């Protein structure tokens, strides 16, 4: 079964397992330093995008706490990742991803997007991210 996953996918699963092990039985702690460290490890455009997304999320919805989720920056409450950033390099993709999980309050009719390709942050894109994050936070 492991041969069905790429090396990058297996690495992400291992990172997630480590995150879960570290959080079991531990009191909630400030995970922002770990998120900032992970962002600092990124290179080029991924790092620039992640830094700005981090700033936008923490400014737009301070109730969403930073944490690592599958080795990537995520933001949520109650132990859930509501919003996440995935670097393009993580899975050798051509673009980074800004995604929202099922607890995000983004419902819009019978169908709505839950992930967005992210290649650059213009003022319009930053405003759209801020609006989506505020909605997602409820």
Write up what this structure looks like.
The protein has one domain (2-137): Aspartate Aminotransferase, domain 1 (Alpha-Beta Complex), CATH 3.90.1150. 43% of the residues lie in helices and 17% in strands. The chain has 138 residues and is an alpha+beta fold. It starts with 6 loop residues before the first helix and ends with a helix. Helix 2 runs antiparallel to helix 3. The chain has a 5-stranded antiparallel sheet.
| Quaternary structure type | single chain
The coarse overall form would be: globular
Number of strands: 5
Strand percentage: 15-25%
Overall average pLDDT: 92
Radius of gyration: 15 Å
What is the terminal separation in angstroms? 39 Å
Overall number of domains: 1
Summarize the structure.
This protein has a single domain (2-137), classed as Aspartate Aminotransferase, domain 1 (Alpha-Beta Complex). It contains 4 helices and 5 strands.
Features:
five-stranded antiparallel sheet, 17% strand, Aspartate Aminotransferase, domain 1, 43% helix, 4 helices, 5 strands, globular, DUF1801 domain-containing protein
Break the fold down into its secondary structure elements and pairings.
Blueprint lengths: L6 H17 L8 H10 L2 H17 L4 E5 L2 E5 L6 E4 L9 E5 L14 E4 L4 H15 L1
Antiparallel strand pairs: 1-2, 2-3, 3-4, 4-5
């Amino acid at each position: 079964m492991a041969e069905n996953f790429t090396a990058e996918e297996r690495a992400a699963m291992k990172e997630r397992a480590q995150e879960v092990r570290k959080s079991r039985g531990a009191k909630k702690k400030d995970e922002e330093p770990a998120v900032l460290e992970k962002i600092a490890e990124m290179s080029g455009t991924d790092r620039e995008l992640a830094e700005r997304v981090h700033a936008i999320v923490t400014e737009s919805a301070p109730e969403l706490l930073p944490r690592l989720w599958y080795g990537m920056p995520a933001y949520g409450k109650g132990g859930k990742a509501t919003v996440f950033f995935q670097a393009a390099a993580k899975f050798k993709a051509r673009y980074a991803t800004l995604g929202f999980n099922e607890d995000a309050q983004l419902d819009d009719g019978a169908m709505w997007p839950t992930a967005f390709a992210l290649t650059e942050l213009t003022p319009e894109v930053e405003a759209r991210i801020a609006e989506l994050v505020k909605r997602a936070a409820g």
